[in-house]
Design brief:
- The chain is of the alpha+beta class.
- The protein has two domains: 333 residues, BirA Bifunctional Protein, domain 2; 89 residues, Rossmann fold.
- A hairpin with a 2-residue loop joins strand 1 and strand 2.
- It binds 5'-O-(N-(L-cysteinyl)-sulfamoyl)adenosine (5CA).
- The site of 5'-O-(N-(L-cysteinyl)-sulfamoyl)adenosine has 21 residues, from strand 8, strand 13, strand 16 and helix 9.
Length: 435
């Protein structure tokens, strides 16, 4: 992509309304624009990141055997009256009346819809287990939307729902999601810490929040420092095997948010405890037959008896993750994207646009990167070098390559990892390193 053509409305000034680094940086880098309180439009740079995160979430969901569906954002009120949550949900639910005076709502979550699909489609234990997911918009009319996409009113979520014949099978489904979440967040360069949690408005018996560490996080976290040395990507995981040992290994280490942490009952000495701040990026729930009983979602078991299906639901804050990753990875100059989700891998800067030799080296380098399938943002504008360097640091691409007249004469380009040291090497070696 050529910078002169790319729609990336960066800001020089720090927007006054933004209180935390991710919100400031996302606005300054032209990733998003606020359309209304807690409601954002995603511009090309931000949308690329959102899609990369979505794709990692999708790949990890597919690896567990879950299947992707797409449910409507607008839902009928009747289904929520059946489950008993229509009144309970309160003012966070955006209620809509259509021209026939029927009650609709913009979905804050999808347990009711998916339970309705299930009860109309599945009759027998032979069709279980099932696990259905979607990646889509939700709306919650938060009292205080803040911190940009981290606490929005409209936000992008991966939500999935498991259906099993009995509690033991439901536990297997829960474990799959637990382990899959560890992998998902680790692939984004994050350190995920699962914590036992309350099930709140979703309800149920067992629940874990997945918190990632970031200094500006909303929750205080206390945990065994061993958490910080565990690498989920090093685990050999077989989703058809018994995952209980992995879940046990991860949950026997101490971890709690401040509302749960009780120094008097903490098994670790205060001096040995890691304390920091974190952001909730995922939440999983096992709630048994809460919705299947109230909504009549039953299947016949192997004795021919009708039983309510056992369910769990599992959420990942996909749009929140964009902010969370920035909170976990930035410096004074801007964002530092992990390579797995970066909007482009390489930022190529022509430091003397219009100079024949520089233009020729840059054009060839750009074409070679494109031919090798390396996503590149090529800044060929007629701008000062300082402006280009500052913008590249702000938008945080993993690699920067600068081409100037001095280097071109010497047969070199300057290559730098975002946040690392500059190196002068030949254009060919630079290309080899990036492809
Ligand atoms: N039905 C369940 C699981 S699908 C559910 O809705 N869970 S949740 O309420 O915990 O939301 C799942 C995830 O969505 C949260 O862990 C969080 O990362 C994200 N999320 C929740 N509220 C917001 C919000 N207002 N803005 C951005 N992300 C949010």
């Amino acid at each position: 992509m050529r910078r002169s053509k790319f729609f990336m409305p960066t800001l020089k000034e720090t927007p006054a309304e933004a209180q935390i680094p991710s919100h400031r940086l996302m606005l300054r880098a032209g990733m998003v624009r606020q359309t209304a309180a807690g409601i954002y439009s995603w511009l090309p740079l931000g949308y690329r990141v959102l899609k990369n995160i979505e794709q990692i979430v999708r790949e990890e969901m597919d690896a567990t055997g879950a299947q992707e569906i797409l449910m409507p954002t607008v839902q009928p009120a009747e289904l929520w009256q059946e489950s008993g949550r229509y009144e309970d949900y309160g003012k966070e639910m955006l209620r809509i009346t259509d021209r026939h005076e029927r009650g609709l709502l913009y979905g804050p979550t999808h347990e009711e819809i998916v339970t309705d699909i299930f009860r109309n489609s599945v009759r027998s234990y032979r069709d279980l287990p099932q696990n259905l997911y979607q990646i889509h918009w939700k709306f919650r009319d938060e009292v205080r939307p803040r911190f940009g996409v981290m606490r929005g009113r409209e936000f992008f979520m991966k939500d999935n729902y498991s259906f099993d014949i009995d509690p033991a099978a439901a536990r297997l489904s829960y474990n799959k999601m637990f382990v899959s979440y560890l992998r998902t967040f680790a692939r984004m360069g994050l350190t995920p810490i699962p914590m036992q949690a309350d099930s709140g408005a979703i309800g149920g018996d067992m629940s874990h929040e997945f918190i990632v560490l970031a200094d500006t996080g909303e929750s205080a976290v206390y945990c065994d420092p061993a958490w910080l040395d565990t690498d989920p990507l090093a685990l050999d995981i077989d989703f058809d095997g018994d995952l209980q040992p992995i879940v046990d290994k991860w949950t026997e280490l101490y971890a709690a948010t401040d509302d749960k942490h009780d120094p008097a009952n903490c098994p670790l000495d205060a001096t040995k405890l890691y304390s920091g701040r974190g952001i909730e990026v995922g939440h999983i729930f096992y709630f048994g037959t809460k919705y299947s009983t109230s909504m009549g979602a039953t299947v016949s078991d192997d004795q021919g008896k009708d039983v309510p299906v056992e369910m769990g639901s599992y959420g990942i804050g996909v749009s929140r993750l964009v902010g969370a990753i920035i909170e976990a990875s930035h410096d004074d100059d801007g964002i530092i994207w992990p390579e797995s989700i970066a909007p482009f891998k390489v930022g190529l800067m022509n430091l003397r646009s219009g100079d024949e030799a520089c233009d020729a080296v840059c054009e060839k380098f750009y074409q070679d990167l494109n031919a090798a399938g390396v996503d590149t943002l090529y800044d060929e504008r007629d701008e000062r070098a300082g402006v280009k360097f500052a913008e590249m640091d702000l938008i945080g691409l993993p690699w920067q390559v600068a081409v100037g007249p001095r280097g071109v004469k010497a047969g070199t380009v300057e290559i730098k990892r975002r946040g690392g040291e500059r190196e002068e090497i030949s254009a060919d070696s630079a290309l080899a390193r990036l492809t």
